[in-house]
Amino acid sequence: MNQYQKMFPSLALFSDLDWPSVTAEYEANYIDVSFPEYLQQKADEGDCPPYLFELAYFEMALFESKTSNTPLPHQHGVHLNPTALFLSLEFDVTRMIADAQTGKIEVIERPHVLCLFRDKNDKVRSVELDEEALTLLENLEEGPQPDRKFVKANDQTRYNEMVKNGLVFDLT
Fold it and tell me: Fewer CB within 10 Å: C terminus or N terminus of the chain?
């Protein structure tokens, strides 16, 4: 098993990649981009299915979330979790991987935004976000807010849920 097979195990579940030739081509011609970007380029050229690069992006983001040394906020204010990684996906990769581990290999098309992050207990979590949640989080993109006044009355429940799951830190 080569290093890419180890880093991206779901790819073997959803394809019969010839790992030695894929690795050789990647290292010879595409080493200046990440392996998922290489798969995306191959998908754009019609040389591999598009769900493979999404699986690879997801696994790379998951690894990054698990190994991130980014400190969590401790200063006053309302903060977006600095470990948050937002993935705009066309395929339901989390369900595909979970199903594949039970032997059910199925490609599930379902556009959505998934956020991976490490909570205050160092556990990697994921949450699917809709447009309203993303709009709420835009208030924290440029940095922390001094308080929760930016949260509209109809977004209070959603906001409290984000604080509870660790995507937002309310240190006010």
Answer: N
Mean of all residue pLDDT scores within the chain: 93
- The phi-psi region of residue 15 (left if phi > 0; otherwise alpha if psi is between -120 and 50; otherwise beta) is beta
CA distances from 166 to 3, 18, 56, 128 (A): 32, 40, 25, 14
> According to the model, what pLDDT value does residue 164 have?
95
Give the integer Cα–Cα distance in Å for 153 and 149.
10
Mean pLDDT of 131-151: 95
Phi-psi region of 114 (alpha: psi -120 to 50; beta: other; left: phi over 0): beta
Beta bridge partners of 77: 171
Domain ranges (residues) in the chain: 1-67
